[in-house]
Amino acid sequence: MSIKISNSRIHGKGIFAGRDFKEGEVVLHWDSYARPISGQERSRLSEVEKKMVFDGKLYASVSQFINHSCNANVSNVNGYDTAIRDIKRGEEITCDYHKEDVPFINLNCNCGSNNCRKVLEHQMFKVKDGIN
């Protein structure tokens, strides 16, 4: 298996490389974990699950376990989480929530990297000219 879910030192569960990946190699493809969902099905989902519906598809996948790192090793390229550097077997698969422009992010960072930002905050939450 090329990936596995396990406990993460960053946060809760995480995705880990089950083998080495080379820079530029696809690690995850989100569409392979998506399925169309009807409006009736959507109405029965939990609030958390509803946040995983985009363009009429439910993305209930392992990608939900990708943790943030300020020194990420994958980036989204056309719906693929693609290695932006070589990844060693056993290494946690991470993306940079800030660079990926993940909406509604407002959290303390636990990545522990040398270039850690300490706090992640989506632009919509930042104070501009004294106005929230």
Describe the structure.
By secondary structure, the protein is mainly beta. The protein has a single domain, classed as Beta-clip-like, CATH 2.170.270.10. 7% of the residues lie in helices and 32% in strands. It contains two helices and twelve strands. The protein has helices at residues 39-43, 47-50, and strands at 3-7, 13-17, 26-29, 34-36, 53-54, 57-59, 67-68, 74-77, 80-83, 92-95, 106-108, 119-121.
Can you summarize this structure?
The protein has 132 residues and is mainly β. The chain contains two helices and twelve strands.
Rg result = 16 Å
**Helix-strand string:** EEEEHHEEEEEEEE
- What is the third-level CATH name, the topology? Beta-clip-like
Query: What order do the strands of the largest sheet run in, or round the barrel if closed?
Result: 1-2-10-7
Number of strands: 12
Question: Helical segment tally?
Answer: 2
What's the story with the biggest beta sheet?
4 strands, mixed
Please write the CATH class name.
Answer: Mainly Beta
Specify the helix fraction band.
under 10%
> Which CATH architecture?
Beta Complex
| Mean pLDDT score | 82
The best one-word shape is globular
Structural class: mainly beta
SSE topology:
Elements: E1 3-7, E2 13-17, E3 26-29, E4 34-36, H1 39-43, H2 47-50, E5 53-54, E6 57-59, E7 67-68, E8 74-77, E9 80-83, E10 92-95, E11 106-108, E12 119-121
Parallel strand pairs: 7-10
Antiparallel strand pairs: 1-2, 2-10, 3-9, 4-6, 5-6, 8-9, 11-12
